[in-house]
Input
Amino acid sequence: MVHIKDEILSKVTKPARYTGGEVNQVIKNPKDVKVRFAMCFPDVYEVGMSHLGIRILYHKINDREDCYCERAFAPWVDMEELMRKNDIPLFTLETKSPLKDFDFVGFTLQYEMSYTNVINMLNLGKIPLMSKDRGDDDPFIIFGGPCAYNPEPLADMGDIFVLGEAEEVIDELLDLYINWKESKKDRKEFLVKAASCEGIYVPSLYDIEYNEDGTIKRRIPLKSGIPDKIRKRFIKDLNESYFPEKMIVPLTEIVHDRIMLETFRGCTRGCRFCQAGMIYRPVREKKVDKLMEFAEKLLKSTGYDEISLTSLSICDYSDIKNLVLSLIEKYEKDRVSISLPSLRIDSFSVDLINEIQKVRKTGLTFAPEAGTQRMRDIINKGVTEEDLIKSVRSAFESGWSTIKLYFMIGLPYETMEDVEGIAHLGQKVVDTYFSIPKDKRNKGLNVTLSTSCFVPKPFTPFQWKGQDTTEMFIQKQQYLKDKIKSRYITYNWHEPSISFLEAVFSRGDRRLSKVLIKAVEKGCKFDGWQELFKYDAWMEAFRECNIDPHFYATRERNIDEVLPWDFIDIGVSKEYLKNELRKAQKGELTRDCRLSCTGCGITGFTKEVKCFNGAIFNKVQ
Output
């Protein structure tokens, strides 16, 4: 057990990040369990504790009497400095145990720019960084989350990757581990057994052969019986799946400090840049009565006064109006507010937001993604300028005066006219506000336009497209800034060099492992935090490893090239993605698959589960 002296905590910002002891924290005696699992999030406490997946898995594992799951987060730079100075290893919040004392150390990979934090946390936990260097007394390092759909950049560090929804496979893995531990066989034996579980990938059991041009020739299983293709795991019936009745209530402010109620998984829209829309298929919903039951239990166990309804596109939940009105009717008297993050333009309901506004006004954010109709058709966004203007008009008439609009720049086939279209669309929102009589709108108009830089992601129709160079992004950002004239518009943009690195690791292969380690040696960490991002150190790391980052980020891939993630079967076929790319080039739309099946392949992937499981209907509202 690690003892953290008060004199250390008194010297760091937000010491509550490191103390634990929160409401609903699970306490067990480590000696009473067969498996100790350290659940790690490669960012600071307030970011990690806002992640729903961590909360679900934490309680699911702890509901087993034979397992104890604890939490660890990346210490901020001030705490890390003191830990290294005082030789304090990275520890868990519950028992203050060093990470190296656990059977499993698991990381959720939500963002490629957290990879250096993963390595830094292993180092701080005194765990060998490379899988090949770990012995029988070391924990198994297990990775999961959306970035695990291209596991290769971390292949040399991870013992095991979970591909798909971890709730579906974690019990199998833990049972397997308990049997292996009792058998007293060697470490390799467990990894081979784990590889036989559907949805589990063990990278050390495969080798990669490359072509002379640096592309992948083939992957080679190093042991007979190891699957060539890894199928993702997913929950068949979300309505009956595990969801915690308690959630930890932090003692310090976190990013999303509220109840998060997951309504459904998957998306039917088919935006061509969106990885989540592909990897989380098929769409599965929870029913309203089940969600009301969870809301009641979580409100009682946490004391929160806000419920956030979460999903990829909340207004696509088939019974959304009934759910929102039921929650408001039941909890309005208790001043419990409801929030709907990430509204779609076309499914925006004035009646719905007016009901929510009765309790407490929440922010309004829309994501048109592109400034022109041509570009929105290329990405298959399926919304029009008329949809946006109609929605913001309703919002202004209902009392909102602050609107945030999210866009991407650098999308495939983009022109400068498309970039300029973002400014024009922002101006039309401003004009819409002033077209409404003064007595029917609130004061204080503020329209924020935010642009991120397009990053090509695996398992999307744009996975073959090269990213814009950093110089091109900067040019487009400056061009857009010059085109925005209204004083009511604020323009925010994302740092292109960070997006460049994100693209490198998004589409990278296992040769990048050595670059990650080199970058950490040069002090790179918290790369998603702009104030800590060290671009020059990263470029030095690439040079010293003799690796060209543009090979991964800006190079357009041949349509027949073997991609690092091709061995994973997500259910959506590669032919479907290729066809979507061809349609993008022509500006052709693909319909929402609730209108009729678009043949992505997911229905053939799993015969026992139908799309829209749990939904009350499957038509677009």
In short: The first helix runs from residue 6 to 9.
